[in-house]
Amino acid sequence: MRSLNFSGLFSTSTFSFYGLNGGRQTTTSPQARPLGGTKSSTQIGSPTPPLSGAAIQSQNPAVTPGGFTVSQLSPYSGKVRISSVSPSYFGFYSGGSLGQISLYVSLGNNERINVTGWLLKGNRGSQFVPGAVNVYDPSGLTEESDIYLANGEVVNMYTSYSPIGRNLRLNKCIGYLQNTMVFNPSLPGGCPSVNRSEILNFTGGCQNYILSLGSCALPASNPPIPQNDYSCQSFLNTLNYRGCFERHRGDQDFLSREWRVWTGSQFVDSQHDRIFLFDKNGLLVDEYVY
Question: Of 60, 155, 168, 226, which has the fewest beta carbons less than 10 angstroms from its beta carbon?
């Protein structure tokens, strides 16, 4: 079992993946409190140059939460923050609401941060940030890898489970998957529209039917098109995730800034909690109190 060492932060020095050690309840502020740190520009994929605790506090002496010292602050504080926490109520699978935790990054243009393996810890338990599929291939066989976040990107973590058994980064075609699998929350729509230049030579009836389809919608299994309209039938077979992926994979805006992670974990308290985010070295990145 993999574990991280948080010696000096809590009475128990080691947390496992599903540790349920208690946390402090010493802060009553209703808002997430951002921690200090500065932006620096590094090459993509390279680690962020660490700042000492003294350097962080010299920029903002009020950044250290109660119960922590300056030396326990992460060099990523101020760069990665818990932007929102929505606890699940009454158990999601018994008719309650879906829980969500969001992480947001603010970085230099050429900077990325690997957040896989970071720990979110509340008063009742904890959850590690897992990996995810960066580019979801139509085969569905793409393996998860570490989540590297660039400026303005967000990780949304949900208390439900992924119907594909994987976490993933959204893309402009991903809404097609909602037709064949039930994602909770639903995947966003807004799939690319059909380019009129691709269908100009089809029959009028074929064009009308294609243009009548909603965004990310699959054609009917028996569309109102003559069986011998082979060119139309062939094109309709490409109106799905695979066809959209093949047409738009090279688009500059193909990948979304949003990553989705389904943990099935309901470790946050439904009423009040103090959520900590720790980096891989066990240093405090951010806290969120509600």
Answer: 226
pLDDT (tens digit per residue) in 264-287: 998 999 999 999 999 999 999 999
List, for residues 200-223, the tens digit of each pLDDT value.
999 999 999 999 999 999 999 999
d(CA 114, CA 47): 8
